[in-house]
Amino acid sequence: MPDHHARRVRRDQAVHAAVVQGLLDPEETPVAAFVDLAGIADSARELLAAWPDRVDVLHAFAAKANPLVPVLALLRGHGLGCEVSSPGELAQARAAGFPAERLVLDSPAKSRRELVDALSGGIALNIDNFEELERVERLVAAGLPARRVGVRINPQVGIGSIEAMSTAGPTTKFGIALADPGNRERLLRVYAARPWLRWVHVHVGSQGIPLELNAEGVAEAVAFAREVNAVRPGQVEGIDVGGGLPVDFTRDEDTPTFADHVAALREAAPELFSGAFKVVTEYGRSVMAKNGFIASRVEYTKYTGGRAIALTHAGAQVAARTVFAPDAWPLRVLAYDRHGLPSTAELEVQDVAGPCCFAGDLTARERKLPKLETEDVVVVPDTGAYYFSSPFQYNSLPMPPVFGFEVSGGSGSGTGSGSGSGSEADSVTFRVLRAAESLDEVVARSGTL
Ligand SMILES: *Cc1c(COP(=O)(O)O)cnc(C)c1O
Q1: Which of 127, 165, 206, 387 to mutate to test the pocket of ligand 1 (most atoms within 8 A of CB)?
Q2: How far away, in angstroms, is 386 Cα from ligand 1 center?
Q3: How far is ligand 1, taken at its centre, from the CA of residue 58, in Å?
Q4: pLDDT at 297 > cutoff 60
Q5: Which of 48, 152, 433, 437 has CB 3.0 to 4.6 Å from 402, enough for a Cys bridge?
Q6: Which of 288, 307, 337 is the last residue of a domain?
Q7: How far apart are CA 384 and CA 62, in angstroms?
Q8: C-beta separation of 220 from 179 below 8 A
Q9: Does residue 253 share a domain with residue 179?
Q10: Which residue's CA is the nearest one to ligand 1's atom 8?
Q11: Residue 337 binned pLDDT confidence (cut-offs 50, 70, 90)
Q12: Does residue 447 belong to any structural domain of this protein?
């Protein structure tokens, strides 16, 4: 079982230590992001333990969830691979030291150059559509090796609670739609004529997809692979089951767990566990979301029309999804005092606003929280995936620094949440994973005269 309590205690210790050690200086660094390095190790361990040893499985972390090179390098060190979807992500994964055999390239719009790079480098590749298939075929005919090439199917099993995150709807843009008239037969002929097509890929969606729907999509991929293999035994050697294990943003617990996902897959697609197929997974959010948080000082507070508003430095530039689609992507906001200790102020209904110049730049609306005061610290937890690691450049706000932290001396066994002394603050060590962007760098990315 994952230790949520220990992770929460580490978070409290890190917030306090960050304040004591000057990492959240109101003048110099009013906003910063933090990554729980022990939490990453725990998550990787749970993921590896959830899959039975019998199955030859590569867990290819979806780089888009957190493409920071030191984070990718840590995950590599913990035994994971990496799934990339663009030349930039591939460059980041290479910089993090992933060897070709632990990389997987997916993308619905791979250029010819990306395909040549992947094939010649021996990187696994999943084809999205029939036109891409022809393009890859020409490259293979021209002599490029096809070491691990698959096709992404769209099992068309339906959408989840967030349409934009659902990739197996009847008209979704990804993959070859298996249930469209004629497609299944056409794809079976395609595999039969191309023995180098040895994988089947499916990814049912990210967040908002029930486990059963995810598993139903994977079962479709397995069924298709078995159909190919019925005619040409052993041709399909592996199933890439994608990612999409949802994260509960309302509390610290990890639910569902990797083991819950494996149980759902076992139920829907037992052949996946027979040892007959290799497996690739592409978990992203579930590996990193709970291992990162954003912290910001409160710069000002005010009342407008009776509404208490706290103005902070954490808004759309670090939490774009939540700000633009607050109903789909609610986040918790936690209140700490100016010393970085959990706030004990009286509860009040407040808006927590970011620094961007548009009215909707709020991380929380009408939320009952301890009354925030200037220089207090607000923490936005569960933001280790898809938040500060993919910043938005609006208002030319610089990217905040990202610090990895470790707590020495038995993390989680201390005096409980946050009643930290100075010496406790010394037991937290930070290292820079991404330096704060300077204003010179902001100007440098703003075009040339
Ligand atoms: C985004 C994505 C993932 C990761 O999804 P999570 O919800 O972060 O687990 C995996 N595979 C593909 C193809 C993706 O597009």
Answers
A1: 206
A2: 11
A3: 15
A4: yes
A5: 433
A6: 288
A7: 13
A8: no
A9: yes
A10: 284
A11: very high
A12: no
Q: What are the beta bridge partners of residue 150?
A: 126, 199
DSSP 111-159: -HHHHHHHHHHT-EEEE-SHHHHHHHHHHHHTT---SSEEEEEE-----
Digit-coded pLDDT (tens) for 140-168: 999 999 999 999 999 999 899 898 888 88
Ligand 1 atom with the smallest distance to the CA of 126 is 13
Collapsed DSSP state (helix, strand, coil) of residue 383:
coil
| 332/199 same-domain check | no
- Give the model's pLDDT for residue 155: 95
The enclosing domain of 16 has a CATH number of 2.40.37.10
- Say if residue 381 is in the same domain as residue 431: yes
**pTM exceeding the 0.85 threshold for the entire prediction:** yes
Same domain for 327 and 426: yes
Residue 444 lies in a domain: no
Task: Indicate which CATH number applies to the domain containing 246.
Answer: 3.20.20.10
Q: Which domain holds residue 378?
A: 4-36+290-437
| Same domain for 24 and 128 | no
Are residues 151 and 53 both part of a single domain?
yes
203 C-beta closer than 6 A to ligand 1: yes
- Residue type at 200 in one-letter notation: V
Ligand 1: distance of its center to the CA of 20 in Å? Answer: 37
Of 288, 316, 349, the position where a domain reaches its end is: 288
Atom of ligand 1 nearest to the CA of 245: 9
Together in a domain, 156 and 83: yes
Task: Give the nearest ligand 1 atom to 65 CA.
Answer: 8
In-domain check, residue 246: yes
CA distance 197 to 17: 53
Q: Beta strand 347-353 with 334-336: parallel, antiparallel or unpaired? A: unpaired
- The Cα–Cα gap between 372 and 81 comes to 42
pLDDT of 30-79, one tens digit each? 999 999 999 999 999 999 999 999 999 999 999 999 999 999 999 999 99
pLDDT at 425: 80
Number of domains in the chain: 2
